[in-house]
Amino acid sequence: MANLRIGLIGLGMMGRHHARVIRELDGVDLVAIADPQGDPHGVGGSLAVLPTVTELIAAGIDAAVVAVPTGYHEAVALELADAGVHTLVEKPIASTGDAGERIAAAFEQRGLVGAVGHIERFNPALQDLRRRLAAGELGDIYQIATRRQGPFPARIADVGVVKDLGTHDIDLTAWLAQSPYRSVSAHTTTRSGRPHEDMVSAIGQLANGIITNHVVNWLSPLKERVTVVTGERGSFVADTLSADLTFFANGTINTEWESVAAFRGVTEGSMTRFALTKREPLRSEHEAFRDAILGISQNIVTMREGLATLRVAEAVVESAITGETRLLTD
């Protein structure tokens, strides 16, 4: 069987990594690249840098990766859908929920594989955590809390921290819990002089009753990417910067100290850090996209899932503006 012919549009910070991984992947060939701004990182090699999506499609591609700024996602994705090209769009799926709906519908109507690049799902620590939660290792899940903070990335200009970074945590939380969001309440601030929010604190509840807490910002010199899942038997802590997963168990040793024993809470137990195979998340994401096109598996983040994440992000921003809790419906 011939390799899938892949086109890439957008050769910026993420585009250069997509180009590298596509070239390393079995079963696919990078045959065309496009960016009206040129190739600042020199990823094209022998490929000509095409100026438009139309010319990218004319190169005869089976699938495409879209790594352009968020504001251009809709126009680019719809043109690819019209041409019958399977597409992986970087997150968020679009700049607005309505645009995301049009994108998702276009790929569904044409029977094409449409995926969104929520790469954190493919982090080894979160992949293993999802497997352990599905196996019931934590028992009932009570809360999923995330911290995602660090300095401002110069690559971002057209969206705020909620749609850029916060969508990672919204997506991974719903995926880990296998439940959509029911409600969110949030506060944001803008401290850096940019037009969009650069810090958010949001709480929420999923449809299955799990409560959530998300701290996200571009204002911290401390870079953190941490997910804490607390439940009946203890807490899992996933650090996606190091791809480490640690379990803090509830204690099982009885205490003879009467005043402490009278407290009916949990006690500190054993701590276990798991040994994981640490594969590059972007490579795993591309493998999932390839395999979905070939009909081997369906482990992608679908466009409907990407749209649901964007709707929650919009509700977070709306809650911060209005000061009211926002309820989400299907």
Automatic annotation (TrEMBL):
It comes from the Bacteria. Signal peptide: none annotated. Residues 127-236 form the GFO/IDH/MocA-like oxidoreductase domain. Residues 4-118 form the Gfo/Idh/MocA-like oxidoreductase N-terminal domain. Gene3D superfamilies: Dihydrodipicolinate Reductase, domain 2 (3.30.360.10), NAD(P)-binding Rossmann-like Domain (3.40.50.720). Pfam families: GFO_IDH_MocA, GFO_IDH_MocA_C3. Keywords: NAD. GO terms for molecular function: nucleotide binding. PANTHER family: BILIVERDIN REDUCTASE A. This is Predicted dehydrogenase. It comes from Cryobacterium psychrotolerans.
